[in-house]
């Protein structure tokens, strides 16, 4: 049994309270390896931003949970060494069972998501409540994120053929019965790099896909039902077209890529949305730089010379998001 406090981590409670009242969102960046973790911490220390390091079950399988947990401990020490102690949360992203959440709660995670959004409403309530009871009864309170509504999109372990928006009429009952600390909602975002079908979009003069707007009306209705309650937005990568073009220039193929425009995320961050999840943009930045180096320097075979520039690009991307999109810069 390891408590997150022993690792120097914090839960989301205070961070979300400040973010909701301050009109900004905490970045929740997924990580699977050392370079991603280093770039996240470098960017968040440089911009003085709190941060949520997210681990999916896919990341656990890829990198091993103990290694990721100890990387989070290392992240705390790394931030200190870089000169600024930012608050760092270690969060389970899309936990799909009580057992997985329990394992994370007992081994140093300060926050878990139990994603019962694919279950019936009553089953989602029962499962989420069970995880909350365990998480909240720990010596050091572990925070829990629940989800209502289903996001579209397909990623390794996160898939949904059909999305449906969150029903604002359900949120009071859900939050009251489960006692979750934050609620992920579905207002049109989805996972991955192709968030909308081309037929849902328009095109600009250059043929670039322009997505339909998010359903801010649903968000407003949710906020009316549970004023000031912390809301989470998944699937919030912007899918920068520069990275898509760079990947394609160097041999990749990413047809019909489209993300959530930064302007809409800025607007969401000013509301009760206090956690914004971003994974795909980091994948795109890393892949773009790796492809570039491999093509431009065919004789390079030192992984550090390939992954190093990718890490630098990731850091720039995360710093930009903290400063110009989420508003979390200067809040640590
Ligand atoms: O929401 C899902 C995250 O992007 C994690 O994806 O399951 O492929 O690690 P993953
Ligand atoms: P993206 O695929 O838009 O980066 O979303 C990540 C996410 O929601 C992780 O839970
Ligand atoms: Zn997600």
Overview of this protein structure:
With 332 residues, this protein is α/β, with parallel strands linked by helices. It is built from 12 helices and 12 strands. Helix 2 crosses helix 12, helix 5 packs parallel to helix 6 and helix 11 runs antiparallel to helix 12. The model has no long low-confidence stretch (mean pLDDT 96). Bound molecules: glyceraldehyde-3-phosphate, 1,3-dihydroxyacetonephosphate (13P) and zinc ion.
Which key features would you list for this structure?
332 residues; binds 1,3-dihydroxyacetonephosphate; eight-stranded parallel beta barrel; binds glyceraldehyde-3-phosphate; 12 strands; alpha/beta; single chain; 12 helices; 46% helix; 15% strand
Weakly predicted, low-confidence segments: none
Q: Rounded to an integer, what's the Rg over CA atoms? A: 19 Å
Task: List how many beta strands DSSP finds.
Answer: 12
Gap between N and C termini: 28 Å
Could you outline the blueprint of secondary structure elements for this entry?
Elements: H1 13-22, E1 26-30, H2 34-46, E2 51-55, H3 57-63, H4 65-82, E3 88-95, H5 98-106, E4 111-114, H6 121-136, E5 143-148, E6 153-154, E7 159-160, H7 168-178, E8 182-185, E9 202-203, E10 209-210, H8 216-225, E11 231-233, H9 241-249, H10 262-269, E12 273-278, H11 280-296, H12 303-326
Parallel strand pairs: 1-2, 1-12, 2-3, 3-4, 4-5, 5-8, 8-11, 11-12
Antiparallel strand pairs: 6-7, 9-10
The protein binds glyceraldehyde-3-phosphate, 1,3-dihydroxyacetonephosphate (13P) and zinc ion.
The site of glyceraldehyde-3-phosphate has 12 residues, from helix 3 and strand 3.
